[in-house]
From TrEMBL:
This is Trafficking protein particle complex subunit. The lineage of its organism: Eukaryota, Haptista, Haptophyta, Prymnesiophyceae, Coccolithales. It comes from Coccolithus braarudii. The keyword Transport applies. One of its GO terms (biological process) is Golgi vesicle transport. Gene3D superfamilies: Trafficking protein particle complex subunit 3 (3.30.1380.20). InterPro entries: Bet3, NO_sig/Golgi_transp_ligand-bd, TRAPP_component.
C-alpha cells in the first residue's frame, strides 16, 4: 500500500494559490499605505497636470512628450524602488506572477493609494488594470492631444523599478480613460532576467 501524502491545497489548486497570494499582497499593501505620508489626490493630480502641460510646451509634439514622460517615469522608478523595498520589507518574489501581485497590491497602494487588478497573460506577461487613476482626475484631452499617453509616466516607473531588481521589461499603455476607455491598462512583458553585477571594493 502506497502511503498517501497530504498535498497542500496550493499545489493541487494553482488558482487557489493565486487567490491567497493576492489576498496576502492586498493586506501588505494596506498595512504599508497606512504608514505613508498622505498627499491630497487633487493637489497631486493638478501638479502632475501642470508638469505635463509644461512638457507639451517644451517639446511641442505629442510623440516627443510621450517619450519624455516615459523617461521621467523610468528615472523615478530607479529611485523609488529602494524606498519601496525598505518600507514594504518584501522578500524576493518566486515568479513573475508574484511580482505582478506585489506591484498591483502593494506598490500602487503604497504610492498612489489605489487598488489595481492583475490580468495574467502568460508566465512572462501580464496587464494591470486601474479602475481609478489619480493622474487622470479632472483631465480631458483636447482633440489635438488625443494620442497623448498622459499616464505613460507609470510605464516608465514600472520599467525603471523592475530593472533595479534585475528584470528588463517592456511596458506600454494599452487603454486609458482619457482615450474613452472604461479603465486604464498597462501591459508588462518580461524580456530578460539581468545578471547582477558585482564590483570589487578595490575598483
Amino acid at each position: 500500500v502506497r502511503e498517501k501524502r497530504n498535498t497542500p491545497h496550493s499545489r493541487r489548486h494553482p488558482r487557489l494559490a493565486n487567490m491567497r497570494r493576492a489576498v496576502d499582497a492586498t493586506r501588505m499593501g494596506d498595512a504599508t499605505f497606512s504608514k505613508m505620508d498622505k498627499v491630497s489626490s487633487e493637489l497631486f493630480s493638478l501638479t502632475y497636470g501642470a508638469m505635463v502641460t509644461q512638457l507639451l510646451r517644451d517639446y511641442e509634439e505629442v510623440d516627443a512628450t510621450n517619450v519624455q514622460l516615459e523617461k521621467m517615469g523610468y528615472n523615478i522608478g530607479t529611485r523609488l524602488v529602494d524606498e519601496f523595498l525598505a518600507k514594504a520589507q518584501i522578500a524576493a518574489c518566486s515568479s513573475f506572477a508574484e511580482t505582478a501581485e506585489i506591484i498591483a497590491k502593494v506598490g500602487f497602494k503604497m504610492f498612489l493609494g489605489i487598488n489595481v487588478e492583475v490580468v495574467p497573460a502568460s508566465s512572462s506577461e501580464f496587464s494591470l488594470t486601474l479602475n481609478e487613476n489619480p493622474l487622470a482626475e479632472f483631465v480631458e484631452l483636447p482633440d489635438q492631444y488625443s494620442k497623448l499617453e498622459y499616464s505613460g509616466l507609470l510605464c516608465g516607473v514600472l520599467r525603471g523599478a523592475l530593472e533595479m531588481v534585475q528584470m528588463r521589461v517592456e511596458c506600454s499603455l494599452k487603454r486609458d480613460v482619457l482615450w474613452g476607455d472604461d479603465v486604464t491598462e498597462i501591459k508588462v512583458v518580461l524580456k530578460e532576467i539581468l545578471e547582477e553585477e558585482y564590483h570589487d571594493d578595490d575598483d
